[in-house]
Specification:
14% of the residues lie in helices and 30% in strands. By secondary structure, it is an alpha+beta fold. The protein has two domains: 88 residues, Alpha-Beta Plaits (2-Layer Sandwich), CATH 3.30.70; 94 residues, Alpha-Beta Plaits. The strands form two sheets. Strands 1, 4, 5, 6, 7, 8, 9, 10 and 11 form a nine-stranded mixed beta sheet that branches. A two-stranded parallel ribbon has the order 2-3.
């Protein structure tokens, strides 16, 4: 079984309850959205990121989808603070030194705000005097908070991050907070 889930903002990519440890009410988990037994996430998506998460009950498939050596291309829609020029994005296309590693070259282009984009709750923090820009970023890596770190490194912090696709799997026609079961 293969499940494509359009993960909302502030949902933890685990099935067990999550308590932040500071007295706040815990975040929602996958169990709040996916009532199917014995499925596991093939990779991660940070709590503050949205979009495609693939789950499966097949351990070999889970490994293939999540292991970096298989280089599944991940496509992200990224809303950044500011108005980059194409030249500002060039470092992302060549690889950026993030201190602990240098990223591989990414495919990056400016896009219009994605059609049928759902409202995020809570909404992003916007400043009236500073514009925002949408980018489409494709990478074959997926290190911890990599896309956010990449855009910040070139001077355009990420405000909203949505994973649109992993390989040929997308969130097309999957409402936020919903999932679709497909055959392997």
């Amino acid at each position: 079984m293969l499940i494509l889930f359009n993960k909302p903002f502030n949902v933890v990519c685990q099935f067990s309850p999550h308590e932040p440890g500071d007295g706040r009410v815990g975040y929602a988990t996958l169990k709040d959205f996916i009532p199917l037994p014995d499925v596991y996430a093939a990779g991660r998506l940070d709590t503050d990121s949205e979009g495609l998460l693939i789950l499966t009950d097949d351990g070999a498939l889970q490994h293939r989808l999540s292991h970096p050596k298989h280089k599944e291309v991940k496509t992200y829609w990224v809303q950044v603070e500011g108005a980059p020029m194409d030249a500002d994005l060039q470092p992302l296309r060549h690889g950026v030194d993030l201190g602990d590693f240098v990223t591989q070259a990414a495919e990056v282009k400016m896009i219009n705000e994605p059609e049928k984009l759902w409202a995020r709750h809570p909404p992003i923090r916007e400043r009236k005097a500073i514009p925002t820009t949408w980018l489409e970023i494709k990478i074959a890596e997926g290190k911890n908070r990599q896309v956010r770190r990449m855009t910040a490194k070139v001077g355009f912090p990420t405000l909203r991050l949505i994973r649109y696709a992993i390989g040929n799997y997308t969130i097309d026609a999957i409402e936020v907070g919903h999932y679709r079961v497909i055959s392997k």
